[in-house]
Task: inverse folding
């Protein structure tokens, strides 16, 4: 079971990985790293004890743009675990029009199936390539009829070997062959709200209709185009769909992560006299069994949610965690508060991450053969103005950097053709020219930045 989490990382290694992408927020990283390591530890225990070790769900509290979602997103990509991010505000109580909370588990199931399918394709890459090669060569060099003489068979094998050599070199890429186009796929679970039984019926009907129209799906394409078309067919031929579903189920139940954002939007403040959305508490009650542990029917089978890790996050500007119903509060025993971003943190966000905002702008303008250079004083100035704008208006954290940076680079980007082959230096004087008046005038800051 331990191979479900492919990277056997210690909490320190997990935090070290996150430090490449998310600046600061040490407490949040530490809490989540320990929660993930505990999942690995649980899988090393005997089966009887495994059942009783429940995940410690986490509630992250912090303003928008401080890194809550980024931490969860980076973790899922690092661990190759089924992960889904949902907004609590999009859910409605059963009986209201909208998405029901069980749809998050159905989305997680689809994500897990995609993950195991990708892993299977990677493991069977050689077989898939051999299948494509044989299929294409047989189109160009049709097999001999049964009962052909040994001489003809020997000649055929020699011709086949020559074609294989030409295929590998790409000499056949320009030739035209006829292939069966894959049936158009229809996302029957796209709405996320369709009952699984109805989705299965709809999927079966689509398959039947697709089979009836198979004759109409033949198309003449080049060998180069056929390679990518046949890759899908090869994967379907070599894959055991039921085995994949079983693997996906295990991957979800032992390693799935659900990130519930904007959970503060379904909290009802105690002093609130208006009940604009009576379904808020209903959504909380619907969340309870899912987070506590229940069975949810999905396309890949019945998913037990007992050991799925739930991470929720919210700014809690207008409400507080205690405004959630007590039962739901108890389902998120670990609380971690994320720090607001000051000028120093914003400067580090600009410069330190692996693909920081500065590196992105330099690379984008590099496409136009413009060498964009930011002076150290300019970077400090950008961080300072971003922090001031956050103080004067709504604090939107690191997202303020996107607004400010676009304002600074806008003219250079627009006139990039005029700067082709040149070095453009962004200094403190340019920053002040672009931003000083905007930030000083609170009304202008509110509307423009």
Result:
């Amino acid at each position: 079971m331990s191979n479900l989490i492919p990277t056997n990382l210690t909490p320190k290694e997990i935090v070290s990985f996150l430090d490449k992408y998310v600046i600061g927020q040490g407490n949040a990283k530490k809490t989540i790293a320990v929660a993930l390591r505990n999942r690995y530890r649980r899988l090393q225990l005997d089966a009887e004890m495994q059942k009783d070790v429940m995940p410690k769900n986490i509630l992250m509290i912090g303003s928008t743009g401080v890194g809550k979602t980024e931490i969860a997103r980076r973790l899922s990509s690092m661990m190759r675990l089924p992960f889904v991010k949902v907004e609590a505000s999009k859910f409605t109580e059963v009986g209201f029009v909208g998405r029901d909370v069980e749809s998050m588990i159905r989305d997680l199931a689809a994500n897990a199936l995609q993950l195991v399918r990708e892993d299977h394709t990677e493991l069977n890459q050689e077989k898939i390539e051999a299948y494509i090669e044989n299929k294409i060569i047989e189109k160009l060099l049709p097999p001999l009829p049964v009962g052909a003489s040994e001489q003809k068979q020997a000649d055929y094998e020699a011709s086949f070997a020559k074609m294989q050599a030409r295929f590998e070199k790409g000499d056949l890429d320009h030739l035209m062959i006829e292939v069966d186009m894959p049936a158009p796929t229809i996302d029957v679970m796209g709405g996320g709200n369709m009952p699984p039984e109805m989705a299965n019926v709809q999927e079966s009907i689509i398959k039947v209709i697709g089979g009836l129209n198979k004759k109409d799906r033949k198309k003449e394409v080049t060998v180069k185009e056929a390679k990518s078309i046949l890759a899908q067919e090869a994967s379907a031929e070599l894959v055991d769909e039921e085995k994949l579903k079983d693997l996906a189920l295990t991957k979800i139940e032992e390693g799935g992560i659900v990130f519930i954002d904007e959970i503060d939007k379904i909290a009802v403040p105690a002093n609130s006299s208006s009940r604009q959305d009576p379904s808020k508490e209903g959504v909380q009650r619907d969340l309870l069994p899912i987070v506590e542990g229940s069975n949810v029917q999905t396309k890949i089978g019945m998913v037990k949610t007992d050991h799925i890790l739930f991470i929720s996050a919210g700014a809690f500007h207008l409400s507080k965690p205690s405004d959630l119903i007590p039962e739901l509060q108890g389902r998120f025993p670990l609380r971690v508060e994320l720090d607001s971003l000051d000028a120093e943190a914003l400067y580090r966000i600009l410069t330190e991450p692996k693909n920081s905002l500065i590196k992105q702008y330099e690379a984008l303008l590099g496409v136009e053969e413009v060498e964009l250079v930011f002076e150290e004083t300019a970077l400090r100035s950008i961080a300072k103005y971003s922090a001031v704008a956050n103080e004067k208006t709504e604090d939107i954290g690191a997202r303020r950097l996107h607004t400010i940076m676009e304002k600074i680079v806008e003219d250079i980007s627009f006139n990039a053709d005029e700067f082709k082959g040149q070095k453009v230096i962004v200094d403190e004087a340019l920053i002040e020219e672009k931003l000083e008046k905007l930030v000083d005038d609170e009304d202008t800051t509110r509307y423009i930045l």
